[in-house]
Amino acid sequence: MKDRIIKVMEREGMTSSKFAEAIGIQRAAMSHIISGRNNPSLDVISKILQRFPKIDSDWLLFGKGEMIRGKRGIEELDLFSTAALFSEESTSVPEYRKENELNPPPNWTKQANTEQVIIKEKPPKKITKIMVIYSDDSLETFIPEKSKKE
User: Which CATH class is domain 2-62?
Assistant: First the structure.
């Protein structure tokens, strides 16, 4: 696997220290992986795949397939390409279905309904009584001086 990691570094034109910085690991850890002293952990592999999403995980882990994900001789498919809607063999258009239509809600208008929000401020709270309960279940009540006069 270290050879495939080295190929990724070469493809990206990075030194081992720049590669370590790019994926968020210590330079020493990367050095140990490259030298063969340590095998890469699952965390390191995950960080490589997150930082370089075009790298095929099967290729990185097992050496199967191509280095770059989606190399099939046609454009790479993604969620937003129209090619993802059709298979290579089929050129049929997806079936029209009324329930898939996007209609605005019945009471929707182009002008936004705006409501005025009024925030009422409450008067500040005043302490009127403090009760202290002791461990022998006795209690004492304190009333602030200002509250006594009011």
Answer: mainly alpha
